[in-house]
Design goal:
Keywords: Transferase. With about 350 residues, the protein is α/β, with parallel strands linked by helices. Helices cover about 40% and strands about 15% of the residues.
Length: about 350
């Protein structure tokens, strides 16, 4: 059976730096039936320089009046805000998650809030120092792979494995990361703790750029659980990803797509999130176990839809069955049509009325 897909409502920075809006996003995600609501934990000054440019989608959504650094400063939640949001998640019955963008934010999430899983955004897949610091917490990691090649994903896994398995006194190095991946026990550890998310880092992402088959490529290359972080419009692509084996779905959630901010336009609103969750659960139920046997619900319909051997005109006892008097008609509760040729030439043991089913 297909295991239950973990559905992450990506609140991200769609609170626009407002704790009250963050709390509303928690409620909306819980009402929609998501398993997790995820935020982002960062300090703008640790994340970007004053000269860092905005992405084109950010420019389109927020204009050019602010730099990326100024935009990020306006989107921060304080550590106390995060504690309040995590408490609201517990009260609403939904798991809290956040993507840390620096070691201090990660320490806060792990030590003060007590998160059970760490999420790494696509932009930090090549941030080896951060990956190493996160892995040393020994928690499961969900790693988005947008913009990445297989070689870059493999390199990131080497860093994470080093953080999980190497002695804290060991000197990190590219050679050390690569060597760990030669050990079978390393892959046992990675398979137990790391999930890879295929992702297209564009907001919104056009269907032609999504390439859902890359999930299978990741699965075949590394043998780890795979999922999909979706930036497409609408809700149909995540359901398709689940049909193709996604163990995790992540999708941006906003209270209103018309709000100012970088990610709102590529997000779905609460009613759409609820529809997406329902669609995914339907797909999970439809996937089944792969055995080609009648569903329990089908069995009563076999007699209605299938056919049996019948006399297509009156036949007297002692008369032989021929193509002129033997046929197949509904219902299918008698002799199966596969025996048609065996009955041709047989002698009727009793009289049969037209359209009467044959007896064995």
């Amino acid at each position: 059976m297909h295991r239950r897909t973990l559905i992450i409502a990506e609140a991200g920075v769609n609170h626009n730096g407002d704790r009250a809006r963050a709390l509303e996003l928690v409620k909306a995600a819980a009402r929609a039936g998501a398993d997790v609501v995820k935020f982002q934990s960062f300090r703008a000054d640790r994340l970007a320089t004053a000269g860092a440019a905005k992405a084109s989608y950010q420019q389109a959504a927020t204009g050019n009046a602010q730099s990326q650094l100024e935009m990020l400063r306006a989107l921060e939640l304080s550590e106390d805000d995060e504690v309040n949001v995590a408490a609201a998640c517990a009260a609403a019955g939904i798991a809290y998650m956040s993507t840390p963008f620096d070691a201090d934010s990660a320490t806060h999430l792990v030590r003060r809030i007590g998160v059970s899983t760490l999420k790494v955004g696509s932009g930090d897949l090549t941030n080896a120092p951060l990956l190493l610091q996160l892995a040393r917490f020994q928690l499961p990691i969900i790693l988005s792979t947008g913009m990445a090649t297989l070689a870059e994903v493999e390199q990131a896994l080497g860093v994470i494995a080093f953080g999980y398995l190497a002695d804290a006194r060991a000197q990190p190095s590219p050679a050390g990361f690569a060597n760990l991946l030669l050990d079978r026990e390393t892959w046992t550890e990675l398979r137990a703790k790391v999930t890879l998310l295929h992702c297209t880092t564009e907001y919104p992402a056009d269907p032609h750029s999504i390439n859902l088959r890359a999930m299978a490529t990741l699965q075949n290359a590394f043998g780890l659980p795979v999922g999909f972080s979706d930036h497409s419009r609408g809700i149909h692509v995540p359901a398709a990803a689940v049909a193709l084996g996604a163990a995790v779905i992540e999708k941006h959630l906003t209270l209103d797509r018309d709000l100012p901010g970088p990610d709102h336009r590529a997000s779905i609103e609460p009613d759409e999130m609820a529809a997406m969750v329902a669609s995914i659960r339907d797909v999970e139920a439809a996937i089944g176990d792969g055995r080609k046997v009648p569903a329990r619900e089908e069995i009563p319909n076999r007699a209605v839809a299938r056919r049996s051997l019948v006399a297509i005109r009156a036949v007297r006892a002692g008369e032989r069955f021929t193509e002129d008097n033997l046929g197949v008609k509904r219902p299918g509760d008698g002799i199966a049509p596969i025996e048609y040729w065996d009955y041709l030439g047989k002698i009727a043991q009793r009289d049969y009325a037209a359209n009467e089913a044959l007896e064995p």
